[in-house]
Design brief:
alpha+beta; globular
Length: 104
């Protein structure tokens, strides 16, 4: 479970619902969503690898989340982020959706 500020811990279901809501909103706006993963984060440069192809990320939020789950299963020890691009307004943002539990 993840903790947000002073609030109670966020359950896995609540986290899934939050991610699905964000994905759905972005897809509704016509954004392109890409999944990226990296073995480690570095201060000046992190080499991110793409997961899959953006071709099937334009549509159903559950489909995107399914791809995200597959990436998590294959790369449980990697950092995983979503990149969201809105070409209409030349805007891009990313957010981390998975961090490895034990990085020792």
């Amino acid at each position: 479970m993840e903790k947000t500020g002073d609030s109670a811990p966020v359950t896995q279901t609540e986290n899934r619902d939050r991610i699905l809501l964000q994905i759905g909103h972005c897809l509704h706006q016509g954004c392109v969503i890409c999944i990226w993963h990296a073995a480690q984060l570095k201060p000046h440069f992190t080499h991110w690898e793409p997961w899959g192809s953006t071709d099937y990320y334009r549509g159903d939020p559950e489909q995107v989340y399914g791809e995200l789950d597959q990436c998590r299963q294959c790369h449980v020890d990697h950092f995983i982020r979503l990149d969201i691009e809105d070409y209409r307004v030349h805007s891009r943002f990313s957010f981390m959706v998975h961090e490895p539990v034990d990085r020792h």
